[in-house]
Amino acid sequence: MNGHNEDRVMIGAEETARRNPMRPPDTLPRSFGAALVVFWRHPSPLLISAFILAFGIWRAAMAPFGWKDAVVALAVIAYFPFNEWLIHVYMLHYRPRRVFGRTIDFYLPVTHRRHHADPWNLRWVFIPRHVHALTLPAVALLLWALWPWKALVLSGEVTYLLLGLHYEWVHYLAHIPWCPDIGHYQRRVREHRYHHFRNENYWWGVSMGSGDRFFGTAPAVEDIGRSGTASTLGLRE
Predict the structure, then answer these.
(1) Where are the domains of the chain?
(2) Is residue 96 helix, strand or coil?
(3) Global confidence as pTM
(4) CB under 8 Å to 101, separation ≥6 — which residues?
């Protein structure tokens, strides 16, 4: 069986799914230690962690944390599953449009289509670096607009980035063989693989599932047939 490992690496995502649905290749991390090493080799978790550290230190230097910071943090946590859902539906699955004879497309949905075409390729699993380049301008704009509440803005931003780091971890787990024996992570991994290998029009949530429950996009898997376009999103590069 080991003699087929090299062939398995070379085959495409559709063939991998056909031969062994919802199971990653043997070449990916299969233990907690190996999973951590590979996770922290990628720039996205490192960049998010750097932002968390920088903004967290800045916020701590301003004033003691209080109940208002807790309210902001809870509001961000409550919003985050809807944030995931909306970004996945309207940005990551954006379809190119023809406008005045020109095709309008963006690099983020292009990379996501590559992710669907080759879901076991970790190159396409993590948030692209060009998205992280927008973090500082976005925070600067928020601080400029809400300067009297700058401490609360930073508290909210740190909370959002912590959830973003958790998002990266959960998404990564869905694309490697190892997963902790914790119900939440098992469910998130299972539903995300349904999105990739069953039907790309459902199970939009990644690190959280309440957005799908609210919008009715997490049906019983036996009620949904295979779309046949999960790896292409109905498009061709």
Answers:
(1) 31-223
(2) coil
(3) 0.89
(4) none
